[in-house]
Predict the structure.
Amino acid sequence: MSEGAAKKEEKPRKFQAIRGTRDLLPPETVLWNRVEQTAHEVFATFGFGEIRLPIFEPTELFARAVGGETDIVSKEMYTFPERIEDHPELAREMQQLMAKPPSPLELAVHLSGASHAFLSLRPEATASVCRAYIEHGMQQLPQPVKLYYMGPMFRRERPQKGRYRQFCQIGAEVLGGSDAPAIDAEVIEMVMTFFDRLELQGVQLDINSIGDRNCRPKYVELLRAELLKVKDKLGPDSQRRIETNPLRVLDSKLESEQGIIATLPRNADYLCEACAAHYAAVKHQLEMRGVIYRENWRLVRGLDYYMRTTFEITAQGLGSQNAVCGGGRYDGLVELLGGPPTKGIGFAIGEDRLILSLQESGKAPAQQGRDVYIAWMGERAHATAIRAAKDLRKAGFSVELPPVEQKFGKALGQADKLGAKYALILGDNEVSEGLWTLKTLADGSQQKLTEPQLLDFLRKL
Ligand code: HAM
């Protein structure tokens, strides 16, 4: 290799965040914190406690809970073998498989008996909450157990506005106890209260009931039979779904399919007696709480664990990815994961989308401004400035203390750029007189104050 080529190689690679992931910077993070703080406050008023969960779990947990045939599990999970060096046979088999890259689930299932050796970054957290409920014997606690969580989820989707490969959810789950319709309604009331507190604009709640083990299979078969009659008029995706999951056809956004879908049988007309009564009671309970909803018979969710109540909430300013929250009832999921028969209902909010919508409607802080910029000159003033900064910060004010001396003109310019409300001017005169100059940057007015007067003045604002 020539010397020149070697030098070229040394040039450090320029790293960028991976497609579909992003950095959240100030001042946007101020809004993220405000949203999360509001969630903590509102959810606590409904008696929910926070659960913090791992961000990876055995692949099998998601395959079983969310469903092996769903897009989320079959196409979108980030799956990796646990300590491949512990499984040399896996490494060999994987190399062979990689000749024709399989889906993560195919990979996990194909390597039979070894699927426990595969882990996935969580695409959602309901499965983990149920796993934790079983693992910690939470059925012994007073029921129902009400938990909420927030944090990153991972799905390998095609990135676009409002759709990321790493995104954040704020979710809540109610586990155990009864399946009283008032629980469904209260969970929905809680998320609507949260959105209301944030002044989220254009909020629209859609609800549906997709039946239970009793009546849903019959409806799905009826739907499949009706879809087969019009198969030729459907696009390739819907044609495939007639076999794999006919309910997902209802989700189609294809213009050419809308007319056909409108004529299909509706789930709500085919609910068994118990499910119909439950659905009617949920609607009544929502009305009692003053929650405005729209019935949407085409609302099907992309995860297999749902039964009876399902819901989705959309908000303003999000384009095609406008679902800001999705949820529903999942009685039986805990049992499916090896726990006792347990009722369950919950939701997850897409926090990235929630933030986008708040920003679009002008609810975002423009800049993370400082309260006070301390413009100091001279050694004695520096000592006073350090003490003043300590006292002001202790009192809860945001203070910028420049590390090196600056001319007052430059310091005031800097204070302006940082969006400071006040500049505290400390020079020799101020220090010897014990009277500090406080300049209000918005109007340029100045006043002389002793230190206690200054704290008093700022506190009263
Ligand atoms: P989900 O509908 O798959 O449900 O996701 C909930 C919300 O997460 C969506 O409405 C959306 O706002 C957000 N979201 C999903 N994927 C992305 C993405 N790629 N980028 C940005 N945001 C996204 C669940 O995850 C269920 N675990 C909800 C639940 C909890 N059901 C019962 N309990």
In short: DSSP finds 18 helices and 16 strands in the chain. The pocket of histidyl-adenosine monophosphate is lined by residues 124, 126, 155, 157, 162-164, 167, 169, 171, 173, 302-303, 323-328, 330, 346-348, 350, 352-353 (CB under 6 Å).
